[in-house]
Amino acid sequence: MFDAEMTALLRAVLDEVCENIPVSETGARAYVASKLLDAAAHGQLSTDALKAAGRKALNPPTMWR
Q1: Cα-flanking dihedrals φ and ψ of residue 6, to 5°?
Q2: What superkingdom does the record give (predicted)?
Q3: In this predicted structure, what is the pLDDT of residue 62?
Q4: Which of 1, 2, 27, 46 could form an S-S bond across to 6 if both were Cys, CB 3.0 to 4.6 Å?
């Protein structure tokens, strides 16, 4: 479980990373949130690391043919 400060950071990063995603797109936002939580659980606690994890979740690598 994260403290109030980390929870606020995670929420702020989620809002920033998903700023161009409509609030109604709950599935996309939930996916990004899960990736942010996973990153934080694995020690990626800086704002930059969390933003990178969120952006990566929005831009998965393309599949090679």
Answers
A1: -70, -40
A2: Bacteria
A3: 59
A4: 2
What's the whole-model pTM score? 0.88
Count: domains in the chain: 1
- Name the 3-class secondary structure at 22: coil
Q: What domain range includes position 23? A: 4-64
Judge whether residue 44 has pLDDT over 80: yes
Percent of the chain scoring above 90 in pLDDT: 85
**Structure tokens, 46:** 């800086």
Tokens of 6: 């980390």
Alpha carbon distances (Å) from 64 to 13, 61: 30, 9
Sign of CA dihedral 59, 24, 30, 27: negative
